[in-house]
Amino acid sequence: MAIQRMDNVLIVVEDLDAVISFFVELGMELEGRGAVEGRWVERVIGIDDVRQDVAMLRTPDGHGKVELAMFHTPTAISAEPKDAPANTLGIRRIMFAVDDIEDVIARLRRHGAELVGELEQYEDIYRLCYVRGPEGIIVGLAEQLS
């Protein structure tokens, strides 16, 4: 049996509002937000006494989703350096296709985002860059060239 689709990627954050604003500025749509707690979630994630706020954002095409979780209890822990470099083990970035990469970079900078490296062109196919947003979250941006 094969999987049906990739449903979402979870990012645990400390400032839910700031990260929601960042992803909304990127062009994602807030699908919902609310509190999650209770024995069912504790059994699913294997942690006792869970109380968290979650938000689900989706891409404009409705296929890609990012789930954000902010833990009230237990306190979230950091497993790596805050601004881990691109070669750190684990999930390093989420890539988004964009229409106008320079416009997206400018809008994300108003939310504190910074380029990780440089905006580069790959042959005559893409313009690409990595942007570090709130809480060290890295998103890749790719503008396909005509």
Give a topology summary.
Layout: E1 9-12, H1 16-26, E2 29-37, H2 39-45, E3 51-58, E4 65-73, E5 94-97, H3 101-109, E6 114-115, E7 120-122, E8 126-132, E9 138-144
Parallel strand pairs: 1-4, 5-9
Antiparallel strand pairs: 2-3, 3-4, 6-8, 7-8, 8-9
List keywords for this structure.
single chain, 146 residues, alpha+beta, four-stranded mixed sheet, 9 strands
Describe the structure.
It is a single chain. With 146 residues, this protein is an alpha+beta fold. Helices cover 18% and strands 36% of the residues. It has helices at residues 16-26, 39-45, 101-109, and strands at 9-12, 29-37, 51-58, 65-73, 94-97, 114-115, 120-122, 126-132, 138-144. The strands form two sheets. Strands 5, 6, 7, 8 and 9 form a five-stranded mixed β-sheet that branches. A hairpin with a 3-residue loop joins strand 7 (120-122) and strand 8. It starts with 8 loop residues before the first strand and ends with a strand. The mean pLDDT is 93.
Give the structure's gist in a few sentences.
The protein contains 3 helices and 9 strands. It is of the alpha+beta class and 146 residues long. The longest helix has 11 residues, at 16-26.
Shape: globular
Question: What fraction, in percent, of the residue positions are helical?
Answer: 10-25%
How far is the N terminus from the C terminus? Answer: 38 Å
What Rg do the Cα atoms give?
16 Å
Q: What is the number of beta strands?
A: 9
The unreliable regions are: none
Give the H and E element order. EHEHEEEHEEEE
Number of helices: 3
Strand content: 35-45%
The pLDDT mean sits at 93
Q: The biggest beta sheet, please?
A: 5 strands, mixed
The assigned structural class equals alpha+beta
